[in-house]
Amino acid sequence: MALQIGDTAPDFEAQTTEGPIKFHEWIGDSWAVLFSHPKDFTPVCTTELGYMAKLKPEFDRRNVKIIGLSVDSTGDHEQWARDIEETQGAAPNYPIIGDADFNVAKLYGMLPASTSGDPKKRTPADNQTVRNVFVIGPDKKLKLILVYPMTTGRNFDEVLRVIDSLQLTAQHRVATPVNWKQGEDVIIAGSVSNDEAEKIYPDGWKSPKPYIRIVPQPR
Fold first, then answer.
1. Annotated catalytic sites, by residue?
2. What is the C-alpha separation between 214 and 219, in angstroms, rounded?
3. Residue 6's closest CA among 133, 148, 135, 161?
4. How many other CB atoms are there within 10 angstroms of residue 136's CB atom?
5. Distances from the Cα of 14 to the Cαs of 99, 120, 187, in angstroms?
6. Which of 99, 122, 123 shows the shortest CA–CA distance to 36?
7. pTM for this one?
């Protein structure tokens, strides 16, 4: 069964560039972003890892830990980090999982369970499905799953935007409309009756249709 939003993120133990971790224990009470790569020394992934290093303060501000994964050893990751710093202006400042045994990639459904052998003999194309972004909540549930092709760099600003929405809607009974950004109007969740909504929003709401109830973002 493929992982779905709402499933518990599989727990695992792994070696990373910052030492061994137990994944759920590492997440703790934070949110987490796990983003995966088919192989070290690949061009698109090099740009992504550098950009995430620059964006890390924004994730920190939201109580989100970030962790990479690539289907190679941590020794390879450390060599790759030097290339990333040289070409992107920032080296990874977060752990990167060594997944040379394919364990985590298989656990998260990114590679078939039958995958085995020497990772050095596999090309990036062999691992092209290892291009996921998983956002995981403090409850260890999967909140977002994105899958990208190898030829398209990921938009991590969008991941931040989604996390803003996830954190807001986890705290308040609202939903966010298309292209919503922090500070913009939101929609009262469908699970909230009008009677309940009147108590929460005594100033009322805009309602172009009965099922659309627009209010300012709760603070």
1. 45, 139
2. 15
3. 135
4. 23
5. 8, 19, 41
6. 99
7. 0.95
> What tens digit of pLDDT does each residue of 171-194 get?
999 999 999 999 999 999 999 999
**Partners of 13 in beta bridges:** 22
Mean pLDDT on 207-214: 97
The beta-strand segments (E) located in 170-219 are 174-175, 186-188, 206-209, 212-215
Report yes or no: 11 and 23 within 8 Å, Cβ to Cβ: yes
In terms of Cβ atoms closer than 10 Å to its own Cβ (0-12, 13-18, 19+), residue 69 is buried
CA angle 92, 25, 12 (to 5 degrees): 80
Average pLDDT over residues 132-161: 98
pLDDT tens profile 47-64:
999 999 999 999 999 999
Scan for tokens 């409309």, then name that residue: 177
Q: Which residues contact 215 (CB under 8 A, 6 or more apart)?
A: 174, 185, 186, 187, 188, 201, 205, 206
Is residue 3 within 8 Å of 83, Cβ to Cβ? no
CA atoms of 155 and 160, how far apart (whole Å): 9
Q: Please name which of 129, 109, 126, 108 lies closest in space to residue 118, comparing C-alpha atoms.
A: 126
What is the per-residue DSSP string for 2-41? ---TTSBPPP-EEEETTEEEEHHHHHTTSEEEEEEESSSS
Classify residue 129 by its DSSP letter: T
Q: Of 153, 168, 201, 190, which is closest to residue 50 (Cα–Cα)? A: 153
- 191: β partners: none
